[in-house]
């Protein structure tokens, strides 16, 4: 698919995702009404405020009353308000800027035709979640400064903001992905044949395994509780760089696990099944990417691997939430069950990029460079190709 055709769904998706999160943030004010509490209940209102507040354009109550985080008033209070307003402008602008290029690359290399539609939907969904995380990260310095405590525990504050509002971002990104893929399917009509690639099965499996091993370094090795504790206590000198443990955990860990306690092996195994699902999703997607991509370039494979890691992470989180719900029900509230949803995206971005590059290099070293099977001109665009991944001869 050409850039001219792919840019339309990417722009539509970027505008829609920005509008959805803007609307979600604007809905926080409605939750402060007494009628909302009467209709939804106090716990549900509190959970929704937790979800939506990071995307609320209006400043917090302390700033609206004319005081910064240090109790300053007057001119200083106006400056804090200005910093918060600038930070939110940066957040929404960055959301659009980060989403569009990634969606453009995905739609162009993974057009939703020839059995690619579901994969394209999941990839754009995952990339929308990544764009939300990047937007909150880029805008964090302004919002931290607007609280009046910019120099106090700067790295822990940054780590906290990196995943703020991730639950509503996951929901908004899913809606955006559905609309983006629908528009891409329409624009792909008449784009010419976009057949699947042909890759030796052995090379594809080796590449997928190599990429999955990279992800396993985070989800298995670094996420072990003793290693995670060591990362938490890494010392750095300097006031602004002090206490980097929270940030390192956000960037390096895809989960957290410890050995089972006495008599709880079955319960422990249920939770660890989520980690297995994460690695299985990553392996399967990396196995199919060289076939599904119209051209398996390094950027396309790397972004695809990031999306695979994010989707696997979401599957893991949904599974663990289901296990927790089966154990304790909803008596702790939806915030307790969905608190981890969308978390770990910074680490998924880092390790997904490394996994994608590793898989691409492995594929090329093993002689598995994808070849496009040209479809006959007379066949319709939506006709599935007959060339599928096959075992190498001999």
TrEMBL record:
Keyword Transmembrane appears in the UniProt entry: yes
Write the record's keywords in alphabetical order, separated by commas: Membrane, Transmembrane, Transmembrane helix
Q: Looking at the keywords, is Transmembrane helix present?
A: yes
- The segments labelled Disordered in the record are 368-394
- Recorded protein name is Uncharacterized protein
The residue ranges flagged as biased composition, category Pro residues, are 377-387
Annotated membrane-spanning segments are: 88-107, 119-144, 164-186, 206-225, 269-286, 298-319, 339-363
Instruction: Identify the stretch annotated as signal peptide in this record.
Output: none
Tell me the organism's taxonomic lineage. Bacteria, Bacillati, Actinomycetota, Actinomycetes, Kitasatosporales
